[in-house]
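User: Okay, second chain of the day. Same drill as before: sequence in, structure tokens out.
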Amino acid sequence: MNYEMIADELLDIAETGFRKNYRNVKKEYFTPENLVLIRLARSNEGIVYAGTLSSYIAVATSRMAVILNDLERQGLVERKTDDRDSRKKIVVATPKGKEKGVALLEEIRRNCADILSVLGEEDAIRLVDMVRRISGAMNPDAA
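Assistant: Same drill. Structure tokens below.
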């Protein structure tokens, strides 16, 4: 099996699709600030360690500090010191931040559902399973 040829075909399809739909992609969803709010909205308690957020959006901790300063100025998050380890900072969404994060998450979820609906239920489930398998193979520690 020639996986490189298949990969080229996948890249061609993706490139064509992105080029055609570039104007429709809402890039603002994926700003570092919005990614932080989305991650907080997806957490059970609405709190996440600052270091975890740095890893999640793949930025240095110094960059994360700038992002969190900006979000604090906007009244979207608060930072607190962890009671168990004073070296760690916990990031908590304010009610305003939680509302924005949930709204972003819901809009992204609706857009993903629209895209998946093109496949039909059975193929959409298969696609998610395939992406899960690929992700697991690329990140064995995350499984």
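The mean pLDDT is 87.

User: Thanks, on to the next one.
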